[in-house]
Structures are given as C-alpha cells and as structure tokens.
Amino acid sequence: MRLDKFLKISRIIKRRPVAKDIANQGRIKINGKVAKSSTNVNVDDQIAIEFGNKTLTVRVNQILETTKKAEAENTYTILSEDYKHDYRMKK
Description:
This protein is an alpha+beta fold.
C-alpha cells in the first residue's frame, strides 16, 4: 500500500493530500530512508514522521484497505514520540 494511503487509513494523518505533501517534503522516513508518498509500506516497517516540533515513530502492524475509526489504532504501534525543544525561549 502507498505511504500516503496508509497514513490516511491509519488516521495518523487525517487527509491524504496532507500526507502526500509531508512525504514529498522529505519529512517521512521508512526504515531510516527518506520516503515519497508513493513508497510501498509493508508490515513491520518503521515509519518516522516529522511534525513541526515532534517526531512520531510507529511500526506497521497490519495493512487494511479500509478501517473504521475504532480499528485504525490497530494498524500501527507507537514506538516513540520525540519532542524538539526551543532552548532560546527559556530564560
């Protein structure tokens, strides 16, 4: 399954065009390699997504063509959520 579609189906990113834009900006890595929106996602892949000040890393548990909201969380496991801190703001 394409990366942008997986991100939408899993509800990590709510809209597919947004997932496509983020991927094509080089802000998503699959297994440590920069991925485009058309990159194939497989079970057990690790996906790292850079959102502004946060990097979310998940492992793909299953690939489904469609999901209900309650089932979406079963498609992945969160491995880490790393936050970048802006030390200039602390005084």
